[in-house]
Amino acid sequence: MNGLQASGSPYAPHTGETLEAMLDAVEADTVEALFDVPEAVRYDGEYGIDARTERETRRLVRSILERNDDLTELLGRGHYGYYVPSVVDHLADRSEFLTSYTQYQPESSQGFLQALFEYQSLLVELTGLEVANCSMYDAASALGEAATLAKRVRTASGHRVFVPELLSEGRRSTLENYVAGTDLTVETYACADGTVDLEALERTLDEETVMVYAENPTIRGTIEERLRKIGAVAADADALFVLGTDPIALSLLQKPADIGADVVVGDASVLGLPASYGMGLGLFATRESYLRQVPGRLVGASEDATGRRAFTLTLQTREQHIRRERATSNICTNQAWVALRTAIHAAALGPDGMIELAKRSVTRAESLAERVDALVGAKAPVHDRRHFREFVAHVDQPAKAIADDLERDGFAVHVVGEHELQICVAGVRDVELEAFVDALEGVL
Asked: Sign of torsion, CA 288 289 295 296?
C-alpha cells in the first residue's frame, strides 16, 4: 500500500504528496488516525480461526444456528413472511440472474431487462399510475425520494412534509435523513382510531405544504377508508399526495390513481422474499407528467435495427450517468434481483391468485381477532376498522408480560402499548394460529 501511495496507480491514484496534503487539510497525522477502530478488533495479520474440514464447518454452523429460538412469528409491522413458491427460487437462482449486476450495457442483458419491464408493468397495472421505476432499496428510501420529488415539482415554494403520527420510526428516520440536505422539514399530523384524522389534517396543512403521506393499510393493519378525501385535502393545499402500500394489498384495495395519489411507494418484497427484517424492495410509481423526475431507472420496450422487439434502459437519472449534477437521485443500484423474484412470484400467482391471497389476508386477520376477542382478559381489534393481515389487541394485564409468556411458549408478537399487542397472520399456518390462541388463553 505504501508503495502504491508513493507512486500512484490506476486504482489508488494518490501520490505521497497529495496524501500528505489531504491529511494536513483535515489535521490528521496518518490515514489510520481517521478511523476509530478499537484495538481489540484491529486486524494484526492473524485471523485466529482454526482450520476445519467442510464437514466440521457444517457441524459448527449448525450448532450455532440451533441456539436460535424456534418461534412462530406473528410480528408484521412492515415485515411479512408470505409463503414463497419454490418456482421463485428455482428460476431466480439461475446463474445468469445471480451473476448479473445492475444493467449498464442493456443490449447484453435482454432477459433481465425484460424481467424488470414485467415488474414495472405489474406495478403500473396495480397502481393505475403511468410510470413505475425498476425498484428502490426499500420502502423507506422510496418515501425519501418521493419527498424530494415533491419539492422539485411543486409549482409554489414550500418546505413542509407531513406524515402520519403512526409512521414507523425506521421510515421516519430515513425520510429525515433524505431531506437533511434540503430546506424540507418533516412534521406529523394526527390519527384517530388507527387512521387519518381528516379534520385535524385539514387544519394542519397550509401553503407551505409540499407533500402529504398516508398509508393503506396502516402500520397497525387498519384500512384507510377516506383516501379520496385525503387526496383532495392535499390537492387543495397544492401538495403531492403520496400513498404507501404494497402489491398484495393493491390486489384488493382501490387503485391509488383512482383516489388521487400522485406517487405510490412501499415494499414490493411481500412477494418473492420471506420476512428479511431489513432488506426489502422499494416500489415507486407516479404520474407520467413527473417522468423526468423519477429516481433510479426505467426499462422500456423498443425495437432494434432489424425491427425486433428489444428492451433498454429508457431513463437513468442517477448522477453516475449522463445527468451528473442534474441527477434526481444518488441511488446506486435498484434491487434488481429482488424485483425479479417479485415478478416471478406475481406471475406464478396470476391475477386470481393475487386477489385470493389478499382476501385471505383480510379474512384470516378478522377471524383471529374474533377468537382473541372471545378470550377473557382481551379485546380485539382495538380499532373499529377493517383490517389487513394484522391488528392490535388490548390485554388487561401488562402487554410486555403477556408477550414474554408467549415467547416462552414459542410465539412472538409486538408490544405496541402498555396494554396493547399487535398480531399478524401473514405466513402463519392455520394450525399455528390455533396453537397461538390456546397459548394466549393460557397466559391471560
From this structure: positive
